[in-house]
Each structure stands twice: as C-alpha cells, then as structure tokens.
Q: What sequence folds into this?
C-alpha cells in the first residue's frame, strides 16, 4: 500500500514536472506557432537567477516566484525584439535561430557562473510514508503546477486578455482586423512564455541542481510534451504530460530511469507518426 | 541545344576540383596533419547534411545520430573482428538501415517539417541517453564493452585492407580521409546530375507537383536520407579511427547543432559551401578550444543567429550571387567603355 | 469492356452538414471532351477533386472508376500513374527551375532517356513557349505559368487529362491558342475541363455537364445546354444573389 502511494506520488510529480517545464513553450507554440529551442535555456536561466539571488541574500521563495520569472521575462522580451520578430512565419528559421540562441546563452552562463554544478537546499524538509523517505518539496512542485494550470485556464476562459489570445490563436487576421496589433500580441506572448519558463526554472532549482548545459535535458521533454499535445495550450499540455509522465514513471519503476525516459521518447515518436496534429488536434478540436 | 541544363545544381567545376585535389595533396607540407584530418572529417559530415538539406529540403535536427552510430559501429565491430574492412562497411550500412526505417516512417507518414525536426531530434536523444547509461559489464557486444559515459577506448583503428598489422594513422589516415571526401563529393555531384537528383530538386521546389507527375516523393526522400546517413556514418567511422575513442558526446545535441551551423554558414544548395563552412568554423572551433576566455558554444551560437537573420542562404551562395552581379556589371561597363573608345577613336580620325 | 473512361456511381461528398457533391452519376466516353460548369459553390470543383484524388472519398460515399479500375480513395499520385494528367486549380509548378527543366522532369518519368529531349521540344513548340524556355518559372507571369503547367501535363502524353480552370488568368490570345491545343490533344486523349468562363467553354464546344447544388442539373451539347431555361435561371439566380 505504501509502495503504491509512493509510485502514485512519483507519477504525479513527473506529470507536474512536465506540465511546469512545458507551459512556457506551449504558450509560445500554441499562440505563435513558434518553436523556441532556447526554451531549455530559459528554464536554466531561471534556475541560475534563483540561486544567484539566494546567494545575494534575497529570500529563496521571493527569488524563485518573483525574480526568476521577471528576469527571464525581460530576457524573452529582448530576444523577441532582437531576433524572433524578424522571423515570424519562417518556422524552420526560427527553430535554427533559437537553437543558436540556446548555444549562446549556454556560453554566456558558462562564462559568468563557470562550468561546475551549483545547487541550493530545498526549503521544505522530507517526510515519510511507511518506510519510504519522500521529498516534501515535490509536493510543492505538484501544487505549483496545478495552480499554474488553473490560473492559465481562468485567464484564457474569463478575461478579455484570454479572449484576445484565443482569437489570435484561431485566426491572426481576425484579431488584427478587430484592432489588436498582432505584433504586440506576439511580443507579450513570448514574454509571458519566457516568464513561465523562468518560473519553472526557479521552482525546480532546489531539486535538480544546475549546470549551464542542463537546458538540453528540459528542452527534449518539453518539446515532445508540447508537440504531442498539439496546439491547444492547456488541454494539450495536460493530456500529454499525463500520458508521458505516467509512462515514464511506470517504466522507470519497472526497470530503471533511463529506460523510462527512452520509453517516453519512443512513445512520442510513435504518437507523432500516428497523429501528426498532436493529441488535441485529434481529440479536442476546439479547446484552448 | 542542351536540355541537360543544370537544374540549379551547378556543373562540376573540374578545374576547381583538380586544384582542390592538388591542394589536399600538398597541404600536409604546410599544415598540421592531425588538424587537417579532423577538419576534412567534419567536412564530409557537413557534406552529407548539405546534400539532403540543400537539395532535397530535408533538415535533420539530429544528424549526429548517424555520425555517432557510424563511429560506435566501427569501434564495436573492429574490436570483435580485428580487420577493419568489414567494420568500415558496417559503419555505413547500419546508420543507413536506421535512416531507411526512420525516413520511411516519417516520409510515408507525410508529417510536416516541424514534426520531422522533433522526430530526428528525439532519435539522437534516445541514442545519447541509451549509450550514456551503458556503463558496466552487462552492456557488451561481443568483446566490446560500451562503457557508458566513458565511451570505448583502444579499439583497432583502420588498417590497410587485408592486413590488420598495417594500421593507418597520421599522414596515411589524412590521405584516406581526403580521398573519401573527394569521392563522396563526386558521388554527390553524380547523384545531382542524375534523374534521381533532379527529382529531389523538384521535390524541394514543389513536392505536390512532383507527386502529380507520378513520382513517389516519400520513396525519393527516404532514399536520399539513407544515402546521407551512410555518408555521415562513414564520417563517424573515420572520426573514430582518428580520435581512437568514441564517447556518447558524438550523439549529443551539440554535435547535431554544430553540423547544422557548418552547413548553413557555408551555404545551402551548394556542395562546396558545407565543406568550406566545416573547414572554416572547425578551425575557429579548434582555435577557441585553446583558450578559455570565450566559450566555444557562445561564438557558434552567435554565428548561427546572425547567419539566419542576415545571411539566410549562407556565405558561398551569397558570394556566387555577388560575383555574378559584379560580372554582369563589369561586362556592361566594358561594353560601354569599348563603345566610348570606339567613338573617341572615330572622333580623332575625323 | 466498354469505352467508358471515367465513371462515378452515387458519388457524395459532405463538408460538415453541406452536400458539396450529392450522389452524382457521371459517365465519360473514350476521347470525349467534357466541360464541368456551374455557378460558384455548385460543387464542380469538389467533384473534379474526387476524380483526381485530391478529395478523399469515403467508403460509403459511392465509387469512382477510371477505365473500369475502382480508384475510390486513391491518392493523386496513384491516379497519375494510370496515365492520367492532372492540372490543379492554382498553378503548381517548380518555381526555382526553368521551363525546360520543369518539362524534362515530367517527360522523363514516362519516356525513355533518348526520347525525352524531343518530347520536351515538341511541347515547347506546341505551347509556343520558345521565348521563355530558359527562364525560371518564378520569374514568369501567372498566365505563362498556367500554360507551362498544362505543358507539364501534356509532356507525359496522358490518355485522360483533367484540367481545373486552365483558362484562369490568361489572355484572350492565349485562351484561343489553348482551345486549339485542347482540340488537338483531344484527337488522342479524353479530356475533362472545369471552368466558369462561359466564353472559353463555348469555344471548346463538346458536351457540358452543369452541376448545381452538388447534383447534375443538365447534360448535353454546349449550345443546347446554355440555351436551357433552367440553366439560365441557375446562373442568373446565383448572380442576383
């Protein structure tokens, strides 16, 4: 029974992890059809910001929940103005340019922080289920992910901003003809997406430890979660997080973590082959 | 009249080819052989991407998968077999088989560019993660331990076919690599000049129309994908023989990014572009490796961003266009000049 | 075996709740020249796309047969390989290649290597493309690209030719030339043309099929059909709307 609870919690954690780390990418992909290959580096910068702030004496919670999203949001804004906006409509070029950005950011962070791992103590202590020691901080991650999804849903569903956003997703020309400047919408979308990535990086920093190259381990998972999910931001991210998180953890428990990851990636390839529109393109035609 | 027009592929410039061959022959007298060898290996790798990306419009975000697989296949096979001829062939065959399966899956599935990007990327990631986790005695193929993060060291390198004692290294390896590069270049030229190559270019230009002509685009795309994977595998095998060790880093995203950067900076839609791109940027990379002030990926990343923004067709095509315009301008000017001279001389005569 | 080249049996296509094509039974005899006409939204284009495979026909939505072969659900590629030539509505050519290269690529699939050059030259002469043979398609005007695409189709010497709006965007002189070419090709091949330019359809002559609201309204020789009261009503009615 205890074992069952542990497995369940681990699965929940993995789903939360995937949802959290893909939310930023999903917003940008869903709204702008832009695939940001520097997404992993945004998450990484969020983590470094948190740790740098913490070392500078700023409260850890404040650093991860406020400073990290802000810093990465501003970074996203700068990148959108300098690079992305020149490449709208050129999907492959955008992927290439953001891949370049990802290398660039890795280089910069290496320059500033060096190439050794840094970490910070998790601020929530662990607890026990029967004979198993569980990380209490994982529960916090699950809560943050759930909250984030709910807030995103509420914003999309009930605010004017969400309405404009959904309109722009369906048809950018209509949004433009209603007097909303698509350029501005895209600019803020990218900024918000970056801020969400920063948030993910911030709250995950105490768990994962950081290296400049850590972004590449986020991008793959976020990438498949978002693409497999399809264009609908919330249902897409949730459904594929659920699927991949469950598969990953169950296979991991059955054999070992690497096999779990490989199973997840293989599943992604098969799903993309079967449903080139993503899960939401196939099953939830009109969701946001 | 010739319908054998060039299909935008350019003709083989035999004079240039002869000069390049000569240059490669005498280069070891001037430059460091070891450096030259690895630069040419990267060139071959970039050439293999340049063929399918520049001419058939297929961009693989994980081309390193075939490079790494070629290297590992060679290492494992040569440890088991000893003599290097069969391992060399296997190092091309196995990546080609993998590419045929993945290519057929993608192209017959008619998935879009972006999904192709994801799939090719994920394939390398799977291989990277797998190879990285193969530490320990359980993971061995015959006599070869895969070695996980540490890779496989100390396998027999290339030898003169038939005689395992006569190993090829140093200047010998350099000439083998140079010959391989030149041969592959000619192979690419031949492919492009053939019917097959023209269909590929047609597919790049308008896939729907080519299908409406009754050509099976998935078949042609799978074929060129397979061919390019075999070439990447050959490059990987040569790299393994040069480095005398293979590590999971060969499968890394960084390796895939690098070859994309070499290719796009050199120029799409040419064969010389990727080769020159790999030599130029490879040299830069090696120079950067000698100092610690500027990080390697910082510069390569910046270059990629700038090229995509400012020079999307790459250096060689941009240069060719510039020369063409300049040539046209010069011709026009000299025509005008000679007319003026003629008028003047007539004037003097009068 | 009869001389029927194309045959549809109770063919239907629904988009949402709308019957774009509503159980159409259609027959086309050997070496016929048939125009499909009808007001906007009559379903002629959708019906045409069922013949070319561009619109996938469901299993319970009737059958399409070409020379007796059931091609329902086939893709355009499979249909072309039967020896059918297809020109789609929007010009679809290889913009980065020259006119000659476009024609070469088409001709080479069906003709042996030695014959290709002559076939290409013949098409260039037939379509009067001499002046632009070495130009890239991307540089040409819309009408010229339209003609080149028809040339691409003819270069394969198809026995059934399906042309979707071949006269769209070309000059009167070019249209006249096109009518001539179509008549000439019709000596050997069966041809289906979709067009809404009545002038063009009239000068093509032959039989026409009028589609209205997804169904066949009238079928017969062009002059008779265009004089028909019902047909006129449909056209004028749709214009008044």
A:
């Amino acid at each position: 029974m205890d074992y069952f609870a542990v497995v369940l919690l681990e699965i929940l954690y993995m789903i939360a992890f995937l949802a959290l780390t893909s939310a930023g990418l999903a917003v940008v992909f869903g709204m702008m059809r832009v695939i940001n290959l520097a997404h992993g580096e945004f998450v990484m910068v969020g983590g470094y910001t948190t740790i740098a702030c913490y070392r500078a004496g700023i409260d850890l919670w404040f650093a991860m929940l406020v400073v990290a999203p802000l810093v990465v949001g501003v970074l996203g804004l700068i990148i959108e103005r300098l690079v992305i906006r020149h490449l709208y409509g050129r999907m492959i070029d955008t992927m290439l340019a953001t891949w370049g950005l990802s290398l660039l950011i890795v280089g910069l962070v290496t320059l500033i922080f060096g190439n050794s791992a840094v970490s910070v103590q998790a601020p929530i202590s662990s607890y026990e289920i029967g004979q198993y020691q569980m990380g209490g901080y994982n529960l916090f991650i699950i809560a943050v992910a759930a909250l984030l999804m709910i807030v995103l849903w509420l914003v999309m569903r009930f605010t004017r901003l969400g309405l404009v956003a959904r309109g722009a997703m369906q048809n950018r020309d209509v949004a433009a003809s209603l007097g909303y400047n698509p350029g501005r919408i895209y600019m803020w979308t990218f900024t918000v997406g970056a801020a969400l990535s920063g948030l993910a990086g911030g709250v995950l920093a105490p768990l994962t430890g950081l290296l400049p190259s850590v972004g590449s381990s986020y991008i793959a998972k976020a990438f498949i979660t978002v693409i497999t999910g399809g264009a609908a931001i919330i249902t897409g991210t949730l459904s594929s997080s659920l699927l991949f998180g469950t598969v990953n953890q169950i296979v991991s428990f059955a054999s070992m973590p690497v096999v779990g990851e490989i199973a997840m990636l293989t599943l992604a390839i098969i799903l993309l082959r079967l449903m080139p529109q993503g899960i939401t393109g196939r099953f939830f035609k009109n969701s946001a | 009249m010739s319908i054998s027009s060039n299909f935008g592929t350019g003709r083989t410039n035999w004079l240039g080819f002869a000069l390049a061959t000569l240059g490669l022959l005498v280069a070891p007298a001037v430059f460091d052989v070891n450096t030259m060898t690895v630069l040419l290996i990267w060139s071959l790798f970039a050439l293999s991407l340049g063929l399918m990306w520049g001419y058939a419009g297929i961009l693989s975000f994980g081309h390193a998968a075939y490079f790494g697989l070629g290297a590992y296949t060679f290492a494992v096979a040569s440890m088991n077999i000893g003599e290097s001829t069969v391992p060399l062939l296997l190092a091309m065959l196995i990546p080609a088989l993998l590419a045929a399966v993945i290519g057929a899956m993608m192209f017959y599935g008619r998935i879009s560019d972006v999904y192709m990007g994801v799939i090719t990327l994920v394939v390398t990631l799977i291989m990277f993660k797998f190879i990285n986790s193969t530490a320990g005695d359980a993971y061995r193929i015959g006599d070869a331990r895969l070695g996980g993060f540490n890779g496989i060291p100390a396998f027999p390198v290339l030898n003169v076919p038939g005689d395992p004692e006569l190993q090829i290294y140093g200047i010998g390896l350099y000439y083998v690599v140079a010959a391989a590069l030149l041969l592959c270049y000619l192979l690419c030229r031949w492919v492009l000049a053939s019917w097959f190559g023209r269909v590929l270019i047609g597919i790049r230009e308008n896939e729907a129309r080519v299908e409406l002509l009754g050509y099976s685009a998935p078949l042609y795309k799978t074929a060129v994908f397979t061919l390019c994977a075999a070439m990447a595998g050959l490059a990987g095998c040569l790299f393994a023989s040069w480095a005398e060790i293979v590590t999971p880093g060969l499968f890394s995203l960084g390796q895939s990014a690098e070859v994309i950067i070499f290719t796009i900076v050199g120029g799409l839609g040419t064969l010389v572009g990727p080769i020159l791109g790999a030599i130029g940027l490879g040299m830069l990379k090696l120079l950067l490796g000698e100092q610690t002030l500027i990080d390697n990926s910082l510069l390569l990343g910046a270059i990629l961003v700038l090229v995509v923004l400012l020079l999307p067709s790459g250096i060689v095509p941009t240069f060719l266009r510039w020369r063409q315009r300049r040539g046209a301008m010069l011709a026009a000017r000299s025509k005008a000049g000679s007319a003026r001279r003629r008028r003047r001389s007539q004037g003097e005569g009068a | 075996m009869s001389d029927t080249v194309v045959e549809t049996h109770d063919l239907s296509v629904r988009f949402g709740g709308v019957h774009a094509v509503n159980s159409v039974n259609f027959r086309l005899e050997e070496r016929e020249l048939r125009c499909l006409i009808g007001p906007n939204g009559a379903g002629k284009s959708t019906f045409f796309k069922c013949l070319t495979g561009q619109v996938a026909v469901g299993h319970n939505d009737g059958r399409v047969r070409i020379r007796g072969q059931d091609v329902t659900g086939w893709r355009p590629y499979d249909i072309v390989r039967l020896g059918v030539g297809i020109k789609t509505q929007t010009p679809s050519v290889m913009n980065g290649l020259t006119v000659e290269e476009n024609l070469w690529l088409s001709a080479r699939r069906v003709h042996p290597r030695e014959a290709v050059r002559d076939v290409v030259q013949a098409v260039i002469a037939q379509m009067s493309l001499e002046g632009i043979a070495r130009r890239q398609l991307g540089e040409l005007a819309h009408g010229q690209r339209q003609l080149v695409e028809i040339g691409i189709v003819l270069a394969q010497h198809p026995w059934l030719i399906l042309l979707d709006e071949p006269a769209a965007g070309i000059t009167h002189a070019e249209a006249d030339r096109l009518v001539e070419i179509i008549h000439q090709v019709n000596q050997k091949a069966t041809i289906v043309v979709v067009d809404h330019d009545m002038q063009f359809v009239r000068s093509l002559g032959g039989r026409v099929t009028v589609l209205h609201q997804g169904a066949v309204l009238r079928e017969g020789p062009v002059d008779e059909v265009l004089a028909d009261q019902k047909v006129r009503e449909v056209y004028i009615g749709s214009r008044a709307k």
In short: The mean pLDDT of chain C is 87. Residues 91-148 of chain C form one domain. Residues 172-186 of chain C form the longest helix (15 residues). Chain C touches chain B at residues 75-77, 80-81, 86, 88, 92-98, 100-101, 104-106, 108-110, 116-117, 120, 134, 152, 156 (CB under 8 Å).
